[in-house]
Specification:
Strand content: 15-25%
Number of strands: 21
Shape: globular
Radius of gyration: 29 Å
Structural class: alpha+beta
Oligomer: single chain
Number of helices: 13
Distance between the termini: 109 Å
Strand order of the largest sheet: 4-3-2-5-6-7-1-14
Largest sheet: 8 strands, mixed
Helix content: 25-40%
Length: 523
């Protein structure tokens, strides 16, 4: 007997019709869901697929993440509020800090007092400060502030002399990050064009906390630079850029009739220039100077104004003055602590929501900037104090095109495919219209990239980009080889059309006063 099954085989279309019906039903339900939620709840679209940037996800923001703009004069009051509301810790990496004895209520002094106050109320405050050997004046001024804050309970560390920490980075309570171009100095806080922001994001703060810890482990708690001491030899015979001199003060008088600077002479030296800013501080602390030091030996740190053989020496630091400045700062700090208004400041009421963010530290910055420019489709607005083009003869590595040249190549390619590109740069800059900066701007002019030069009385110190009215890059990174290949730098990429709108408006206002865009005509 045949035991084979007698059931029939299924007909070819028996399962096909139900399957099609299910697919149609699923499509209908998806369409209804999208119709109900509306376009406002959808993630913004762009010609740049954000998930594919450098083949890495940008990092989705959580519902509580948001940004607060701290451009220009918004920085000091915003940061004061954040410092005052800190509860457990504040970690900072700063390139430049200044304390102005002659201007006790200056913005820079206010921030320093607030840090000292936070430390006094039990907040752990740690600071990494720049101390590079290539800029002795900045390092010595930072040393002054380091001493003032260290005596107030702040844990201060110096970076290595061969490492330039150009960051302007603050992490508060492992939840808030302040990042941008703003140094703690008079010009930066009260005069310059600067772009900075505060970002409330546990994820981003965690990244920068780890970044801080890595750098903190490489620092030292003692000032790392040492200078030769001269006690009797002729000052003019010394060839180094910085010296420590010890001698008896003999004269102190105006340098000449057309200058506000003074000349100081020790018993074995020629004239030492004392800038007017140092004179103001001396007379603030010692109204009867130089009589108060008559007949006494003084120790001073001097720096050459240039590398020329007969270049003048300038007074940078007077040890006796620094001792009395510390006493003044401690008294002022006590006043700040006892009279502080502890009423919470509403800081985040009008913050801007972010779609996604990605830190761009050190060597991560360049590949992402190149990728963003390459994918741009409508417009790029740039505020950058330094932008240099290197001739092939000056390439550090003959077979490798310099990083800034690669950025310019991508900008030119974007312009040629129809992207509108605008660049606002400083008319002076760090290398005041050097050959390399002129070469960069000349390439821009020849390739339909609109260049704006700011007012000569204003410094545009910003390092920012707005791309396709959606992406914002804010930070400390200049377009120079040291910044892109050697320095410690901190920048951040934010996906936020609302934030892009604000920074775009800031750019448009900044270019209202500008000079001709032909670098050959600039002074």
């Amino acid at each position: 007997m045949n035991n084979r099954s007698t059931s029939r085989k299924p007909l070819p279309g028996q399962f096909f019709i139900p399957l099609v019906s299910l697919l149609v039903l699923a499509a209908l339900m998806y369409w209804m869901q999208q119709s109900c939620t509306g376009p406002s709840s959808r993630r913004p679209t762009s010609a740049i697929p954000i998930e594919q940037l450098q083949d890495q996800p940008l990092g989705q923001s959580s519902p509580n993440d948001c940004a607060m703009v701290l451009n220009n004069r918004l920085y000091t009051p915003g940061l004061v509020g954040l410092i005052d509301q800190a509860r457990s810790r504040i970690d900072l990496i700063l390139y430049q800090l200044r304390y102005y004895a002659a201007h006790p209520e200056s913005a820079s002094n206010t921030l320093l007092y607030r840090l000292a106050q936070a430390s006094a109320r039990g907040v752990r405050v740690r600071l990494i400060v720049e101390a590079s050997d290539w800029n002795p004046e900045n390092s010595l001024q930072n040393r002054r502030v380091a001493t003032l804050l260290s005596n107030s309970g702040v844990e201060v560390r110096f970076d290595r002399p061969n490492q330039n920490s150009h960051n302007k980075l603050i992490v508060i309570d492992q939840n808030i990050v302040v990042i941008g171009s703003t140094n703690w100095s008079y010009y930066s806080l009260e005069r310059n064009n600067e772009t900075s922001l505060a970002l409330r994001s546990t994820r981003i703060a965690h990244h920068y906390q780890e970044y801080f810890e890595r750098l903190f482990a490489q620092t030292t708690d003692t000032y790392p630079l040492h200078y030769p001491v001269i006690t009797s030899a002729r000052l003019d015979d010394h060839t180094g850029p910085v010296v420590v001199v010890t001698g008896q003060l003999t004269t102190f008088e105006p340098l000449h009739s057309h200058s506000n600077d003074y000349a100081l002479t020790l018993d074995f030296s020629s004239d030492i220039i004392v800038p007017v800013s140092v004179c103001e501080e001396i007379w603030t602390v010692w109204p009867d100077f130089p009589r108060c030091l008559s007949g006494q030996n003084v120790t001073a740190v001097l720096a050459r104004s240039s590398n020329a053989p007969n270049a003048a020496w300038t007074l940078i630091r007077l040890d006796a003055l620094e001792d009395d400045l510390n006493k003044q700062f401690m008294l002022k700090r006590e006043v700040q602590v006892t009279s502080s208004d502890t009423t919470p400041v509403p800081l985040w009421e009008n913050c801007i929501q972010t779609v996604a963010c990605k830190p761009l530290d050190n060597d991560v910055y360049l590949p992402h900037i190149l990728d963003l420019i390459k994918r741009a489709r409508s417009g790029i607005k740039i505020m950058q104090i330094e932008c240099y083009y290197y001739d092939q003869e000056a390439w550090p590595t003959p077979n490798l095109e310099p990083a800034t040249n690669r950025i310019l190549d991508q900008l030119v390619a974007a312009s040629q495919r129809g992207v509108r590109i605008e660049l606002l740069t400083d008319i002076r800059g760090t290398e005041a219209f050097s050959t390399r900066k002129k070469a960069f701007l000349d390439q821009c002019n020849r390739n339909q990239i609109t260049v704006f030069l700011d007012d000569p009385d204003l410094t545009t110190h910003s390092k920012s980009l707005i791309i396709d009215d959606r992406f914002v890059i804010i930070g400390s990174t200049n377009w120079s080889l040291p910044a892109l290949t050697e320095n410690n730098e901190s920048s951040i990429l934010v996906d936020s059309p609302d934030l892009a709108r604000i920074y775009s408006r800031f750019f448009d206002q900044a270019i209202q006063v500008h000079y001709p865009n032909d670098p050959k005509d600039t002074r």
